[in-house]
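Key result, reporting period 2: structure in, sequence out.
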C-alpha cells in the first residue's frame, strides 16, 4: 500500500490524477490539500477515497505515513512545495512544467538526488500509446533518417482564465509556450530518443487580449479563475520558432488564441523512409516512402494518467527511474528557458 497526499485540488487533480489514483487499489489518499478549503471538500465528496481535507500541506509532510506527495498547484508553487516535500523524505510527483525557470528546475533535480527520492514530472504524453509506438518506430528505423519535425498547437480564441493565474507571468512563468508547448516539445524530444538542444530562435506575441474587457471568446478553460476587470495579462498568446537538436530540427507555431476558427493540434515527423502525422492525444497516420500508402494506426489508447501514476509507484518500489523522472525531463525545461530568452533578445540562443 502506498499512502499519498494530494496538494492542489484544481482541474488537473480532478480531471486526471484523482480519477487515476482512485482506480489503483494499492493507493491510499490520506490527504487532499488546497488553500481554498472548499475545493478540497468538493474533491473529497467526488472521490470518497480521500480521507482528510487540509489547507496546510505541511501537515501532510510531517505525517510519517505519507510515502509520496502529488504537487498539482499553479506553476509558481511547484518549487517550494516540492523542495519541502523532498526534504521531508517524501517521493514527489510534480505536474508540468517542472517549475517557472530552468535554474530552479536544476535545484529540484539536485535536491531529489541528494535526498534519494523519486521526483517525477507530469509530462503525461510519454505514457500515451501513440507516443510509445512512434518512439519505437523511430528506434527501429521505420522513418529512416528523421530530419525534421513540425508541430502546431493552435486554437481559436481560447486563452485560459484570462486575467488570472494562467495569464500572470509571476504565477505561471509564461503563456501558451509553457502551458501547451511543454507537452508538444517534451514528447517530440522523447520520440526522437532523448534529443539534446543545440540552438533555438523564437518570437512571442501577446496580441489577442490587450484590452481584456473587450476580449471575445466562445469558450474558456478555467473561466472561473478569470479576472478581466482587474487582473493581469502579461504572457504570450502566440509563439513561433525553430529548434536545432542533435537528432532533427523542429519548427513550431502555437496559439492560445488566433483569428482563425480552427483547432490545429498535430505533429508531423519527417524522415527519408517515412513520415507520420500525430493528432495530439490521439492516433497517427504513417506514410511509407516505398509504397506511398497511408497506414492509419489502429489500437486502443489506455488512460495515460493511469499509466503515468502506476509507473510512478513502480519506480518507487524498484528504485529505477522511469521516463518521467526529472533527469529525463530536464532538457524540456532548458528548452523553454532558451525559447523565452531568444524571444526577449530577438536573437538566436545557443548552447
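The corresponding designed sequence is given below.
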Amino acid at each position: 500500500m502506498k499512502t499519498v497526499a494530494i496538494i492542489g485540488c484544481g482541474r488537473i487533480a480532478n480531471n486526471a490524477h484523482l480519477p487515476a489514483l482512485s482506480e489503483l487499489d494499492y493507493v491510499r489518499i490520506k490527504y487532499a490539500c488546497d488553500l481554498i478549503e472548499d475545493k478540497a471538500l468538493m474533491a473529497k465528496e467526488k472521490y470518497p477515497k480521500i480521507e482528510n481535507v487540509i489547507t496546510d500541506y505541511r501537515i501532510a509532510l510531517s505525517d510519517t505515513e505519507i510515502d509520496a506527495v502529488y504537487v498539482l498547484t499553479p506553476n509558481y508553487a511547484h518549487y517550494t512545495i516540492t523542495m519541502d516535500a523532498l526534504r521531508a523524505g517524501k517521493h514527489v510527483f510534480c505536474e508540468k512544467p517542472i517549475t517557472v525557470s530552468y535554474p530552479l528546475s536544476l535545484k529540484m533535480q539536485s535536491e531529489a538526488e541528494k535526498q534519494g527520492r523519486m521526483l517525477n514530472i507530469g509530462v503525461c504524453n510519454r505514457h500515451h500509446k501513440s507516443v510509445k509506438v512512434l518512439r519505437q518506430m523511430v528506434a527501429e528505423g521505420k522513418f529512416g533518417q528523421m530530419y525534421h519535425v513540425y508541430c502546431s498547437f493552435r486554437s481559436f480564441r481560447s486563452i485560459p482564465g484570462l486575467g488570472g493565474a494562467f495569464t500572470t507571468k509571476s504565477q505561471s512563468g509564461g503563456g501558451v509556450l509553457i502551458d501547451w508547448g511543454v507537452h508538444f516539445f517534451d514528447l517530440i524530444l522523447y520520440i526522437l530518443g532523448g534529443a539534446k538542444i543545440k540552438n533555438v530562435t523564437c518570437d512571442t506575441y501577446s496580441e489577442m487580449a490587450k484590452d481584456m474587457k473587450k476580449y471575445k471568446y466562445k469558450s474558456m478553460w478555467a473561466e472561473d479563475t478569470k479576472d478581466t476587470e482587474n487582473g493581469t495579462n502579461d504572457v504570450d498568446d502566440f509563439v513561433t520558432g525553430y529548434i536545432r537538436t542533435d537528432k532533427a530540427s523542429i519548427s513550431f507555431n502555437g496559439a492560445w488564441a488566433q483569428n482563425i476558427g480552427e483547432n490545429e493540434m498535430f505533429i508531423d515527423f519527417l524522415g527519408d523512409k517515412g513520415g507520420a502525422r500525430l493528432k495530439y492525444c490521439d492516433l497517427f497516420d504513417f506514410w511509407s516512402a516505398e509504397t506511398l500508402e497511408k497506414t492509419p494506426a489502429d489500437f486502443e489508447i489506455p488512460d495515460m494518467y493511469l499509466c503515468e501514476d502506476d509507473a510512478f509507484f513502480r519506480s518507487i518500489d524498484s528504485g529505477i527511474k522511469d521516463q518521467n523522472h526529472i533527469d529525463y525531463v530536464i532538457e524540456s525545461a532548458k528548452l523553454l528557458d532558451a525559447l523565452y530568452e531568444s524571444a526577449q533578445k530577438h536573437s538566436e540562443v545557443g548552447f
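The chain has a mean pLDDT of 97. The first strand starts at residue 2 and ends at 7. This case is discussed further under Risks and Mitigation.
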